Amino acid sequence: MLYRAxxxxxxxxxxxxxxxxxxxxxDVLARLGIASLAATSAPHVPVRVMGLDFPNPVGLxxxxxxxxxxxxxxxxxxFGFLEIGAxxxxxxxxxxPPRLFRLPEAEALINRLGFNNDGVDAxxxxxxxxxxxxxxxxxxGRNFDTPNERAADDYVACLRKVYPHATxxxxxxxxPNTTDLRALQGQDNFDDLLAAxxxxxxxxxxxxGNRVPLAVKIAPDMNDAGxxxxxxxxxxxxxxxxxxxxxxxxxxxxxxxxxxxxxxxLSGAPLKALATAVVVKLRxxxxxxxxxxxxxxxxxxxxxxxxxxxxxxxxxLYTALVYRGPRLVGEIVRGLASPGQAx
Length: 343
What we know:
The chain is α/β, with parallel strands linked by helices.
């Protein structure tokens, strides 16, 4: 009820400013120890994925908390896990504003943020200061000015820095807002990157005595051959999970809206069917030992159940939180705990 009352005020602000204000407000509640009052309680719906025990299968998608500044507040909202980032080795401002746009008629967002973040050292320091002890994924990428021939160096550098702090690490090769980043999903680039990450992970596992799972986040705009190649290389290189999917460059279903002409990746309800189709194709192509995390257009328990029935092991939210508020997390988890309510 509180978010429903506040939403018109937030939507009167620039989307990026509203985003920052919402997170700062959550931080205040977290410092007072009452952040959970912004949400509804989430029942225990345990699931074991990637060798990890999740208290429930509903997570926060990367992108909402790029620098790990708001972990404590977000961790009080009932999520089974959080994913922060994307983070790059060096700080970078991202693309110039305006770079975040609402499409309320479609419960969607378009963003062209461009991996804006304070760098991996700032992120790890924020994690050290947090009190959160739940499952924490860290999403890593390359700096905008690093050519793809040296992209693996950036991903490996981030992996080394975040490894002691991460429950799992995701290589983001699918943001449409960094020039040529999606070219890393091409066969040779993709296999080389996964090989470098797997080799470094093995070395770090020996050093720390702890094997941290690796995931890769892919685009929804790939053809069937591309999805099959991704599945083949992921299985061959011992990657633990695929996150499906990032935002789409398609404007199907929203092309009639003036804001749809803005460049960037589209998320929210219009992405749901496209992302679910990728989950279905991946599940057919991947061995059961490789997990799938379904993302895209989840705004209800029924939407989450659809992703799980399609073959996902876990799901993540982002855009729906903007439109529905933090109570959505507990509502979805409760719906999944009571299957009759999730359909």
